[in-house]
Amino acid sequence: MESEQLFSRSYYRNSYNSITSASSDEELLDGAGVIMDFHTTEDDNLLDGDASPGSNYAMSNGGGVVSSSTHLLDLLEEPIPGVGTYDDFHTIDWVREKCKDRERHRKINSKKKESAWEFTKSLYDAWSGWLVVTLTGLASGALAGVIDIAADWMNDLKEGVCLSAMWFNHEQCCWGSNETTFAERDKCPQWNSWAELILGQAEGPGSYIMNYFMYTFWALSFAFLAVCLVKVFAPYACGSGIPEIKTILSGFIIRGYLGKWTLMIKTITLVLAVASGLSLGKEGPLVHVACCCGNIFSYLFPKYSKNEAKKREVLSAASAAGVSVAFGAPIGGVLFSLEEVSYYFPLKTLWRSFFAALVAAFVLRSINPFGNSRLVLFYVEYHTPWYLFELVPFILLGVFGGLWGAFFIRANIAWCRRRKSTRFGKYPVLEVITVAAITAIVAFPNPYTRQNTSELIKELFTDCGPLESSQLCQYRSQMNGTRAYSDVSSQPSTPGVYSAMWQLCLALIFKIVMTIFTFGLKVPSGLFIPSMLAYYHHDWFLFKEWCEVGADCITPGLYAMVGAAACLGGVTRMTVSLVVIVFELTGGLEYIVPLMAAVMTSKWVGDAFGREGIYEAHIRLNGYPFLDAKEEFTHTTLAREVMRPRRSDPPLAVLTQDDLTVEELQTIISETSYNGFPVIVSKESQRLVGFALRRDITIAIENARRKQEGIMLNSRVYFTQHAPTLPADSPRPLKLRSILDMSPFTVTDHTPMEIVVDIFRKLGLRQCLVTHNGRLLGIITKKDILRHMAQMANQDPESIMFN
Amino acid sequence: MESEQLFSRSYYRNSYNSITSASSDEELLDGAGVIMDFHTTEDDNLLDGDASPGSNYAMSNGGGVVSSSTHLLDLLEEPIPGVGTYDDFHTIDWVREKCKDRERHRKINSKKKESAWEFTKSLYDAWSGWLVVTLTGLASGALAGVIDIAADWMNDLKEGVCLSAMWFNHEQCCWGSNETTFAERDKCPQWNSWAELILGQAEGPGSYIMNYFMYTFWALSFAFLAVCLVKVFAPYACGSGIPEIKTILSGFIIRGYLGKWTLMIKTITLVLAVASGLSLGKEGPLVHVACCCGNIFSYLFPKYSKNEAKKREVLSAASAAGVSVAFGAPIGGVLFSLEEVSYYFPLKTLWRSFFAALVAAFVLRSINPFGNSRLVLFYVEYHTPWYLFELVPFILLGVFGGLWGAFFIRANIAWCRRRKSTRFGKYPVLEVITVAAITAIVAFPNPYTRQNTSELIKELFTDCGPLESSQLCQYRSQMNGTRAYSDVSSQPSTPGVYSAMWQLCLALIFKIVMTIFTFGLKVPSGLFIPSMLAYYHHDWFLFKEWCEVGADCITPGLYAMVGAAACLGGVTRMTVSLVVIVFELTGGLEYIVPLMAAVMTSKWVGDAFGREGIYEAHIRLNGYPFLDAKEEFTHTTLAREVMRPRRSDPPLAVLTQDDLTVEELQTIISETSYNGFPVIVSKESQRLVGFALRRDITIAIENARRKQEGIMLNSRVYFTQHAPTLPADSPRPLKLRSILDMSPFTVTDHTPMEIVVDIFRKLGLRQCLVTHNGRLLGIITKKDILRHMAQMANQDPESIMFN
């Protein structure tokens, strides 16, 4: 009795389904109660159906192939391997990834109490997030330390070598020597310049030329080695890496970009590139290196290796760790990750980034690469207050920084575009060597460009004290008895200062020009803008005259710092994170206000000339599919104007839920190149059921062919819960419900595009279906949106495509 | 010829519409081309229709009332006043607000070139965002300065009065005196304690009792005045305000919560409450005050006053300014706003918050309320490094902080619940006076509790130096010749230190107990937890023994700082922002690592006992509709299980697009209490057209009745672009398309609730419609979600309602 009732209910359900599919006249129920009734019926259907799918299915299938179809169903309920993964250069579906992760989490949680082993596994899973960021932090800190030490040593190798211990750099070499006096701590017998070694003489024009030659020779060798390594082993290791990491974090797949080869080659070539004296820095590359570490460690944990969204959380934390070690600024690193790099940044990631940055900074501090217990060479502290009238020059520095940023971005992008479009770009090795040669030849004569950029920044940032031996400090040299030209305090500037300022101005111009050509070369390179305008401040020495002579009323280092921040702000358009980085870099808590003023001004001025920062500009140059969260969409277009198919296009390729055969399905897939297909109730009603991905369909058909008997070309494919009623002699149908996304995102055709863009950004969608009064009209993908935005901005819509 | 063609096209359109409404058999076109054709038809229909709605309408209307119906349409195209505003205690629709703002922006931009006046207006509009945050920052800074000075003066009033200048506080009074020696700078003839004034004697038990009495008297008076002011003038001015501000920022409307009365009363009573010596701080209230300023200034700018979403951007910036002045930490304020308070935080708001915080800090610095050129009284700088082994006590401090936080939250919530549910809560004035009396009576004998909390923190944080007169520093008093018991450095602790430690422990216990009862009182009160555990550190004096005697190996102030951070972390569960605040507060750049370690530990330990911070706990206690972005939704329910109507409910109240009369519409509205109604094509097809809000419908009907002739109870209401064909004698129909939201958010019934919750959080929705295969099934509102989450957590679902 009960079984018969069950049968009739199942039968009803099945016939209900077949009626639904056969025609659109399925309104069996009418009047006010329709929603209620419909709801109840459907509810029964699904809840019962889910409880015992096999038996229901068998009963309603007309009694034909009961046992095997049960078996078939069981087979299909298992996840098909490969479903839910992504191809290279495709966009991930954040929502689906997050659902997958929650599902996995629930599975582990429900098993937890079964055995001690499962409990251990659940603990491991719960802690794996912290473990992976800890490992990433440790590795980033260690690598940063190694890079710092190696680059320092190789940089000094250009000038000479320590005979007593080859592995010592200049400073370490002389530090151990007891013949060194403090005043001339750079000179000691153990350290031999190349001229001394080869010609046997330390002075005279011959030795100068010898040193000059060896300097250039080493610089060229390093640059050549770097570019060859990159070209042969890991083409992804070139450049700053930040534009690509931004794109990857926004949900794009670039396989191998964060792999072990990239990591190895990037680490080695970064050392070479920095040592070669090219006008570049290690900040961007260190972020890339940290992200590689994060990616590699995430493979140890299935929670992260199998989920693209979760992996990106690790990468966000890794980029915070990268900035943390690059600038010695853990909090700034977290803010950088939040403001500049990350796309999806939940609060949990904030804490983990914080932790990763902390661990990395801690490791670097333990390695102590600079021997000053600080994370960076150019850590400084000021203690003099600043005065209100100084805000004027600070704001002027901001204006200058903004102008410089806008100019730099334009010039650099123009150069990179030229490189891409002309024959010139075909010879990257030659280009690198040319730039390295010019850099080395021009840099050597000027002491400010000859030294390492970090050392230069240190010298500029540091206040002049009695122990300072820099030429810039000679105007205060009356306190320093060892100076040649010592003068009285009423004459604040000496010829030494003037020549230093001249050299600095030349160095500034040189650095500006070279950086434009260097950023974008096929070697690891970061923006080392901080160095740039650092110099600018020296004109403000003039202010000195306003104060009482000899009093410490203006801190030149502060102007250097503010100038550096303004320039970096103009180039990258960062605000809060930049202020925090500079402020952590220099310990100048007092100076937040001037920093803020300069950085804000520089951003405003820069934005007036073009809203993109250098990273966004490079993303657009390379055509990555990146939907910027900062840019506002201000047009009035509606979803119907952006969706495909357009007026002149062929109709939208759709699948019907239960009347296609395998052959028809394969034809649709092979004739189109879309990544996914909406599934509808029937061609007549156009009512949307779900969305199926091309990759998943292909995998599922392959899999069914291999594993299930009786699946033929004329097998019926169905996406419904229950198989459609088929003639007795038809082959076994193929159920594809498991690959059907039954909760596709839909918007109506009247939805303004601004809302659609918002949804895409905030939820991280790949595609969205467009309906009108409940019927399917079309589809909008992320690329449609990017193309539409390019069109609206009067750019070539095809430039959006990744190339 | 052309006109006839137009007519026939219009006719086709109109008949198309009527077919759509009459039955669901509208599938006139079939086969593969259906989408394409449908799309084209609709497109024509709409684009032409929009271009000349009047004439099309007239022609298709059967030639009846051509001129008046054109007039009618014109009237309706104007925005109806009041549509798009919100009732009190309702949730805003972020998406709609943002669309409104973009629309306004476009209108201004398109007019810009018309005249110089319009151009000025557009400039004003573009800068109004910066203007309003500047004004907010200025006002917050100024108010914070006034509050600081006033509270300081009134606090000293409890102990005595400056006879030479009544308006001087104790320190200022003696500062000007030339009879003050540095060692006894607290004592000067100008400053008279109450005993001196009244009894004429400064020493002896009588004067002690007199001072005790006056202290208690003033404390009680201040508390009484504060509670009365709050009760009579601005009931919203009580409490910390942060839970409510979080709720408001998440999109809830509480009228008057940020109004001018609240601002005035909160400012006055905050001074009174702090001066009364209650165990509370001014941080939360300062955030509330700053938000009031932001809200009031936003009324000057139509861009912000007329848009609830934009107004919330100002409030986010204002809360950053509030924290900035409360702790003297501009960056920390921005992070606090980001991490703890804000809901929707675009990068633009980040910059503006940054700016507001900067301006506020700047103003406060200019006012210089503490005479130390710092933003807070307890600004300190340490310069001694810390050692790796010290991480152990720091982590222990974190554990302690977490435990304390969990305990505090439970105890405070239990007490507040008791207050709400029992008769006791009926007498707030009595309660405040009782607490104030107990506080004052217990506090006076102990010097650490007698003084202002900020002063106490300053004393605890500060390193002992030769100039320090605190009892705690007596063990180093050999450098300070004026001490009574001076001892040698080999004996690090003196009786003075021991008694100080005893007093501190008592003060700690006392503060712990009192804060539990104080937080939640009906006076302005903030959490002043930093003060709390600050004391704890003194047990770590024991560590001193490990180091060489006399060496400066452990900084007690550092322990105080870390302990304070850990406790505040345990109570509020903030991480990054808290570290940044403490670090800005104290200038201890070196100490980020210990701070991070302690704060992370305290958060973990606290979370083990309950995931909510104190603010979330209070939000839940008060039943505000707040959808927390931090809490993860981990259940497997589907949208169909959460949506209404449930199985046992009456069917969903829906409107059909063109066959209701005004009377029927009014009946539906009056019989239900829903805030909005889905509009469908027809009862039979259940295909969704849009969503109309109750408030908008009511306003539109009222408006039509008043302004349009011929609208009667049996007038047909239609939401379509064109009026339905009606019998010749029927009254004029009422078009409500302008109030119809044609892009309602929909999800399918199979959508997992975790995705739905995500959509609600990220897009800030009010409601979402649920469909199945293109038909409307039900609706999910924010309250449904909150109710469902409460149910899942085994809480009473009805506690979610605002009360």
Automatic annotation (TrEMBL), chains A, B:
Signal sequence region: none
Protein role: Strongly outwardly rectifying, electrogenic H(+)/Cl(-)exchanger which mediates the exchange of chloride ions against protons. The CLC channel family contains both chloride channels and proton-coupled anion transporters that exchange chloride or another anion for protons. The presence of conserved gating glutamate residues is typical for family members that function as antiporters.
Classification via SMART domains: CBS
SUPFAM superfamilies associated with the record: CBS-domain pair, Clc chloride channel
Subcellular localization: Cell membrane; Early endosome membrane; Late endosome membrane; Lysosome membrane
Protein name (database record): Chloride channel protein
Family as reported in the entry's similarity comment: Belongs to the chloride channel (TC 2.A.49) family. ClC-3/CLCN3 subfamily.
Pfam families referenced in this protein's UniProt entry, alphabetically: CBS, Voltage_CLC
Organism expressing this protein natively: Denticeps clupeoides
PANTHER family: CHLORIDE CHANNEL PROTEIN (PTHR45711), H(+)_CL(-) EXCHANGE TRANSPORTER 3 (PTHR45711:SF8)
Principal location: membrane
Domain CBS: 643-709, 740-798
GO cellular component: early endosome membrane; Golgi apparatus; late endosome membrane; lysosomal membrane; plasma membrane; synaptic vesicle
Highest taxon in the source lineage: Eukaryota
Keywords assigned: Antiport, ATP-binding, CBS domain, Cell membrane, Chloride, Endosome, Glycoprotein, Ion transport, Lysosome, Membrane, Nucleotide-binding, Repeat, Transmembrane, Transmembrane helix, Transport
Membrane topology: Multi-pass membrane protein
A GO molecular function held by the record: voltage-gated chloride channel activity
CDD domains in alphabetical order: CBS_pair_voltage-gated_CLC_euk_bac, ClC_3_like
